[in-house]
Design brief:
Elements: E1 4-7, H1 10-18, H2 29-34, E2 39-46, E3 52-62, E4 69-73, H3 87-99, E5 102-107, E6 112-117, H4 118-127, E7 140-141, H5 143-154, E8 158-159, E9 174-179, H6 185-191, H7 194-206, E10 209-213, H8 218-232, H9 239-252, E11 257-264, E12 267-277, E13 280-288, H10 297-311, E14 316-321, H11 333-340, E15 345-349, E16 353-356, H12 359-371
Parallel strand pairs: 4-5, 13-14
Antiparallel strand pairs: 1-2, 2-3, 3-4, 5-16, 6-7, 6-15, 8-16, 9-14, 9-15, 10-11, 11-12, 12-13
Helix pairs in contact: 7-10
């Protein structure tokens, strides 16, 4: 069956998303408004009956001085990735993006390849039997995902191993998730390791209070976030970025984005943002102060967010990116160490893929990014 592709209206795109159990928040129309330095477009695949059967939020970033664009679909497009004939989806997409001036296309198929349980990872770390997740046999593998990867290579797509999408955006290949479906909250809590359970109790005894904040509290979040940026050596996003994120995500759906504040004796010690689409909830941004860490505000705030995700009917609580390192001496090891305590799963996606529509410009971008 032939599919055609066209630009979707915002309402058409949102109607398609609402018909799915979940779609990445990066594939919602609102995300194009958050990324104001990119031009955005909603595109859709239309079947013979006129129904929208696939969709994507495309971000276009212009090359300096010429009207040619990198077309980027973070954690998308949302199509039938297990269709044996991927070309009927990808060919019309490439033709459309080329007509829009794209010289290269980058996408992140939302296809899960492998999962590792916390216990499996902890045993490997203790035994020093694997330095990286990829060296550790997974607890669950989807062979169909491997077929998708093989099909993409056969069709001329290149797997991005650079760790970046160019122009400062990148989506993680490895994430950490806590499954909530068919589990009680007691099950979730008992799945935490002993340190997490002790720290949650410690925060409660110390009088840490976790509350939901409003837009006006973003400035408080941002002050703590800047402290975190200095401590963890990253460049913080400015406050207007988070205000824009709040405005456009919650205009799309009042429950799309939430802000949480962990307070002790009236002082905000930790703050986080949470994003919800369908039955998937993401821990998006987190910040914590350098002092009073002994009252464990970060554990308290995560437990509150998990409980709220459960109350919303979420099937998964997603703590977002981790490195795949299992080496305790690696500076990125802390990313997985903290999240392992939730008793969840490390999840590997298919990763990001490139299709050079203009090989000369694509290579020039690669060279430019490698020098940054």
């Amino acid at each position: 069956m032939t599919l055609r592709l066209r630009t979707l209206t915002r309402d058409e795109h949102l109607a398609f998303i609402k018909g799915k159990p979940s779609v990445s928040f990066l594939q919602c129309p609102s995300w194009g408004e958050v990324k104001s330095e990119w031009r955005s477009e909603s595109i859709g695949w239309i079947d013979a009956g006129g129904a929208v059967v696939g969709a994507a939020e495309v971000l276009y970033r212009q090359l300096p001085k010429i009207k040619r664009y990198l077309a980027y679909m973070p954690e998308g497009p949302v199509i039938d990735w297990y269709d044996g004939d991927l070309n009927r989806w990808l060919n019309p997409m490439l033709a459309h993006l080329k007509s829009q001036g794209a010289f290269s296309v980058k996408m992140g198929p939302p296809v899960v390849v492998n999962r590792w349980e916390s216990e499996t990872i902890k045993k490997a770390i203790a035994a020093k039997s694997a330095n990286r997740l990829r060296d550790l046999p997974p607890d669950w593998t989807d062979e169909r995902a491997a077929d998708v990867g093989r099909n993409l290579r056969r069709l001329g797509w290149l797997q991005d191993t650079s760790g970046g999408a160019g122009f400062g955006d990148v989506q993680p290949r490895y994430v950490f998730q806590v499954p909530l479906m068919r589990r009680s909250l007691d099950d979730v809590h008992s799945g935490f390791n002993q340190l997490w359970r002790r720290n949650i109790k410690k925060a409660q005894k110390a009088g840490v209070e976790v509350v939901q904040g409003g837009r006006e509290d973003l400035a408080v979040f941002h002050e703590v976030y800047k402290v975190t940026a200095v401590r963890d050596h990253f460049t913080p996003r400015p406050l207007p970025y988070f205000e824009r994120m709040w405005d456009v995500l919650n205009a799309e759906d009042p429950e799309r984005m939430r802000l949480y504040l962990a307070k002790h004796e009236g002082e905000v010690l930790a703050s986080t943002t949470m994003v919800t689409v369908g039955d998937h909830v993401w821990y998006s941004y987190g910040a914590s102060a350098n002092h009073k860490r002994e009252v464990r505000p970060s554990n308290a705030i995560q437990w509150r967010m998990l409980r709220d995700a459960y109350a919303l009917g979420a099937s998964v609580y997603d703590l977002r990116g981790i490195s795949d390192t299992l080496d305790e001496n690696d500076h990125l090891f802390g990313l997985i160490q903290f999240k392992l305590g939730t008793g969840g799963q490390a999840v590997e996606y298919l990763g990001e893929w490139d299709f050079p529509l203009n090989k000369v410009l694509h290579k020039a971008l690669d060279m430019y990014m490698s020098r940054r």
